């Protein structure tokens, strides 16, 4: 090692903490100028928190990759499953034998069960929720309101009384 150059290394020091963990330290050694020829300045840096953050970031990245793979797998299962279910429904309509229709209902039930399994594996929010607001009203009341608004605002010209 030349004069003024330093080198470093990360070590684990068995210095038990209150929680039972060990300190992780980075060590940097720098030769001391104007001193004995083999004299070094040793600097110790606590890297425990940085190491924990790195480990946490790695776990989060792995979780993201796993979730994406699970979503792709669910997609690959759902596509043919939807086709099988649809084919079973069409076949059920064509069959007139109740015993044969029961076979198609088994296929439909199992397809639905697998679909539910996929939903359970992916968790909440995995599929868009299709909810529509339904509002009932009387068509007559809407038309009457529309006409009365136009009439009171002078929208229509007055009827010609000479006709």
Largest sheet strand order: 1-2-3
> What share of residues is helical?
40-55%
| SSE pattern, N- to C-terminal | EEEHHH
What is the residue-mean pLDDT, rounded to a whole number? 79
Assembly type of the shown chains? single chain
| Helix-strand category | alpha+beta
Low-pLDDT stretches are: none
Q: What Rg is obtained from the alpha carbons, in whole angstroms?
A: 38 Å
Q: State the distance separating the first and last CA atoms.
A: 115 Å
* Shape category: elongated
Q: Got a strand count?
A: 3
Quote the beta fraction.
15-25%
Mind describing the biggest β-sheet?
3 strands, antiparallel
Q: Tell me the number of helical segments per DSSP (H or I, 4 or more residues long).
A: 3
Fold and architecture overview:
The protein has 163 residues and is of the alpha+beta class. The protein contains three helices and three strands. It has helices spanning 48-94, 98-122, 139-152; strands at 7-16, 22-31, 40-46. The chain has a three-stranded antiparallel β-sheet with strand order 1-2-3, covered by helices on one side. The mean pLDDT is 79.
